[in-house]
Specification:
Layout: H1 2-5, E1 8-10, H2 11-21, E2 24-27, E3 32-34, E4 48-52, H3 79-86, E5 90-95, H4 131-138, E6 144-149, H5 155-161, E7 164-167, E8 187-192, H6 195-205, E9 234-238, H7 248-263, E10 267-271, H8 276-294, H9 313-324, H10 327-339, H11 349-368, E11 376-380, H12 399-402, H13 408-413, E12 417-421, E13 431-436, H14 441-451
Parallel strand pairs: 4-5, 4-6, 9-10, 9-11
Antiparallel strand pairs: 1-3, 2-5, 6-8, 7-8, 7-12, 11-13, 12-13
Helix pairs in contact: 4-5, 6-14, 8-10, 8-11
The chain binds glutamine.
C-alpha cells in the first residue's frame, strides 16, 4: 500500500489513525516519526520502532494491557529496547496486546480491541497477542515493531495483517525486561514489512545478555550461505498440517508457494510430524501452568493493582487480583493452578511435558535424517484468514484456541519460525510459515528472503 512507502508520518496522522485502529496504548509526543530508513550503512538510525506493551521501557508505562499494571513505570529498559536505542532507533510508543499476551485476537485488552487495517470498512481482528504491533506495521506507521511470541503471538498477527513476523530460536534474543507469561516458551519476536528490515532488527538485538541466563550468542553453524539460491534446498511439507478445516485462501496460497518453490530448483518432499495433534493441548497445559506461577506476583503488595476499601490481609490480596485481572487471565490462572495440584499434575503437567518431547523428536527426525533430512518446513501460519471482530464464543468453547494449532509446535520445540505474507494483491492476507532447525535463525531468514 502507499502508506508503507512513506518515509515520515506526523503525530497528527498517527493519532487520527490510532483513534480508529487502537493499535497504540501510549505514544511519544514528537511531531514527526521517521518510518523509512535514510542511511543504508546505519539503517536503524532515527527510525521509529513500535514496542509491544509487555516489554519494559523507561519512558512509557508498561501495562501488559492489564488494569493491574496500568500505572506501572519500569525504571529500566528491556535489553532489546536498550540495544535498539544504542543503534539510534527511536521508541515511538507501546502497542496493544491481549492482556499479558494471553490470546489470539487482541480482544482481551483492558484498553479495548485493536482492528486490522487491512479491512477498513468491516471490523476484523489483527490476530494476537502482538496485534497492535502487526497493525502498526501493516499500516506503515513504523519502521518495524517488537512483539513477543510464546505460542504464535508474532506469527499469527503477522499472517492476519499481511506482514512478516519472525520468532527466533528460544534464547537467541534476551528477554530481560519482558514481562513473563510462560518462561519456557517466551521469545521476543520482530514484525516488519519485509525480511530485510526483520534481519536488520534481529542483528541489532540478538545475542547473549548477562541479565538473561537463557540467552546465547550463536555464530557457528548459523551463517547465511553466500550462494543465495534455493536450488537443492530441501523443503518438507508436513502432511499433518493438511487439516480439513483449512480455508480455501490458505490452501491455495500454500499450493501456489509449493509450485513456485519447485520452479526455483528446491527439492520438495512430504514429511510426517505425527504428534502435531497433541501439541495444542500440551501447549495450553504448559503455558497456563507457567502463567499461574509467573502471575502470582501481581497481588498488589510489590506489583499490581491495589483495591481500595477492603479489610483483612488475605481479603486484600484476593480482591486486588480479582479486580486487577481480566476474565481470560483469571480463567488461565485457575486452569494452570489446577494442572499443577498434586492430584492433577501427573495427568496434565507431566503428560504435557512428555508430549513436548515427542513434538521435538518429530522435528528432529524431519530435519536430521540423512539423506532425506529437510532444510526447512513450509506450512500455513493459520487455518484461515482474519476473522470478524466481536465474535462471541460460549465460555466453554475451545474455538478461540484453535487458531494456534500451526504455530505452537515450533514453540514447544524452541525452533525459529517466520510467517510470510502470501496472497494475490487485493485478496485477504494469508501467512505461510517456514520452520527451521534450532539455531538456524540466519539461515531461515535467508531462505525466507528467497521464498518471498
Ligand atoms: N494464543 C496463544 C496463547 O494465548 C499464544 C500467545 C502468545 O504467543 N503470547 O497462549
Amino acid at each position: 500500500t502507499s502508506a508503507t512507502l512513506r518515509q515520515e508520518i506526523t503525530l497528527k496522522e498517527l493519532k487520527a489513525w490510532n483513534s480508529i485502529h487502537n493499535a497504540f496504548i501510549s505514544l511519544s509526543d514528537v511531531k514527526k516519526f521517521r518510518v523509512g530508513s535514510e542511511t543504508p550503512n546505519e539503517p536503524l538510525k532515527g527510525v521509529s520502532i513500535a514496542v509491544k506493551d509487555n516489554i519494559c521501557t523507561k519512558d512509557f508505562p508498561t501495562t501488559c494491557a492489564s488494569l493491574t499494571l496500568k500505572d506501572y513505570c519500569p525504571d529500566e529498559d528491556a535489553t532489546v529496547v536498550r540495544l535498539l536505542r544504542e543503534k539510534g532507533a527511536f521508541m515511538m510508543g507501546k502497542t496493544n496486546l491481549d492482556e499479558f499476551g494471553m490470546g489470539s485476537s487482541n480482544a482481551a485488552s483492558y484498553f479495548g480491541p485493536t482492528f486490522n487495517p487491512f479491512f477498513p470498512e468491516g471490523k476484523h481482528v489483527p490476530g494476537g497477542s502482538s496485534g497492535g504491533s502487526a497493525a502498526a506495521v501493516a499500516a506503515g506507521m513504523c519502521y518495524g515493531a517488537l512483539g513477543t511470541d510464546t505460542g504464535g503471538s508474532v506469527r499469527l498477527p503477522a499472517a492476519y495483517c499481511g506482514v512478516v513476523g519472525f520468532k527466533p530460536s528460544y534464547g537467541r534474543i534476551s528477554r530481560f525486561g519482558l514481562v513473563a507469561y510462560a518462561s519456557s516458551l517466551d521469545t521476543v519476536g520482530i514484525l516488519a514489512n519485509d525480511i530485510g528490515r526483520v534481519s536488520c532488527l534481529f542483528e541489532a538485538i540478538e545475542g547473549a545478555d548477562p541479565k538473561d541466563q537463557t540467552s546465547r550468542r550463536v555464530i557457528e553453524n548459523d551463517t547465511a550461505n553466500s550462494s543465495a539460491s534455493l536450488s537443492g534446498i530441501k523443503v518438507g511439507i508436513p502432511q499433518e498440517y493438511f487439516m480439513h478445516d483449512l480455508d480455501s485462501h490458505t490452501l491455495k496460497a500454500w499450493r501456489d508457494c509449493i509450485q513456485q518453490l519447485k520452479k526455483t530448483g528446491a527439492e520438495l518432499s512430504s514429511v510426517s510430524l505425527p504428534n502435531t495433534k497433541y501439541a495444542l493441548p500440551a501447549y495450553y497445559v504448559i503455558a497456563l501452568s507457567e502463567a499461574s506461577s509467573n502471575l502470582s506476583r501481581y497481588d498488589g503488595v510489590k506489583f499490581g493493582h491495589q483495591s481500595s476499601g477492603c479489610t483483612g490481609f488475605s481479603r486484600f490480596l484476593t480482591q486486588n487480583r480479582d479486580e486487577g485481572f481480566g476474565d481470560e487471565v483469571k480463567r488461565r490462572i485457575l486452569l494452570g493452578t489446577y494442572a499443577l495440584t498434586s492430584e492433577a499434575i501427573d495427568d496434565y503437567y507431566h503428560q504435557a511435558q512428555k508430549v513436548r518431547r515427542l513434538v521435538k523428536q518429530d522435528f528432529d527426525a524431519a530435519f536430521s535424517h540423512e539423506p532425506a533430512g529437510v532444510d526447512f518446513l513450509l506450512t500455513p501460519t493459520a487455518i484461515g484468514i482474519s476473522p470478524k471482530a466481536n465474535q462471541k464464543h460460549p465460555t466453554n468453547s475451545a474455538a478461540p484456541y484453535l487458531n494456534d494449532v500451526f504455530t505452537v509446535p515450533a514453540s514447544l520445540a524452541g525452533l525459529p519460525a517466520i510467517s510470510l505474507p502470501w496472497n494475490p494483491p487485493g485478496t485477504p492476507p494469508v501467512g505461510l510459515q517456514l520452520i527451521a532447525q534450532f539455531d538456524h535463525d540466519n539461515k531461515l531468514l535467508q531462505w525466507a528472503d528467497l521464498v518471498a
